[in-house]
């Protein structure tokens, strides 16, 4: 089997663009030349990678299986070349970091500002996407680092706990329960709850927690974004359960946060990266800044 780097570049370009013409432009080759590269690659692998029609190009099962390893191979090669040219000095390079929208706005932007101040010549891309979308972006090498909920498929990713702590109850400042220093889970089951929609991983975690305690919460409103949950609590629609990083960030004047006890249920926010792809020097620099920033925030709250 003889597979060339150019064939892999052509394959990944078609995967990313979903179109032979755009893929050819992306890697600066004629469309006929790109078609030849794909055909040669399919001959080497003895299988079709794409189903083609006049309107669209779709990956076959074999193509989907090959996409992740091919993208990682190209990314690893790019990282190695970059390191040789000077990335190891952490003065140049690029890193893409993804996190859920609320986590991005409340935590990651501050970390990004510190990173930019420390490494002004490293390009930084931030992507605010749902936690459940992060693993796929890492697998396709479109994302270098993710920060969010721990992926279900642990074997495919390396994870490191950044934040870990008890879940918090968020209440309107004038709520009757706001007078207490801590709340029980049973307290929340007795009042209207504002929460995320059932397909959200954090909502599923909450449902399991309530079920284990034999409690059935009274759901008042379900929304897609955690930032909307906060807005609804501020407006008095009900109370909410927040992930642990909520305890590290000062709340709005209209709300108060209280720890949930009896029992204490702990959750975590993790840093996620590809198990089979070493982080670039730029990504390693961001990891170091994130660790330091979170440690300082946690110390300030202790």
In a nutshell, what does this entry contain?
This protein has helices at residues 5-17, 20-26, 31-45, 61-85, 101-118, 134-139, 185-189, 201-212, 226-234, 281-301; strands at 50-52, 57-59, 94-99, 123-128, 145-148, 157-166, 168-172, 183-184, 192-196, 218-223, 240-242, 255-261, 266-274.
Give the biggest beta sheet.
5 strands, mixed
Order of helices and strands: HHHEEHEHEHEEEEHEHEHEEEH
- Helicity range: 40-55%
Taken from the alpha-carbon principal axes, the silhouette is: elongated
Which tags fit this structure?
alpha/beta; elongated
Structure characterization notes:
Helix 1 (5-17) crosses helix 3 (31-45), helix 1 (5-17) packs across helix 4 and helix 5 packs across helix 10 (281-301). With 302 residues, the protein is an alpha/beta fold. It contains ten helices and 13 strands.
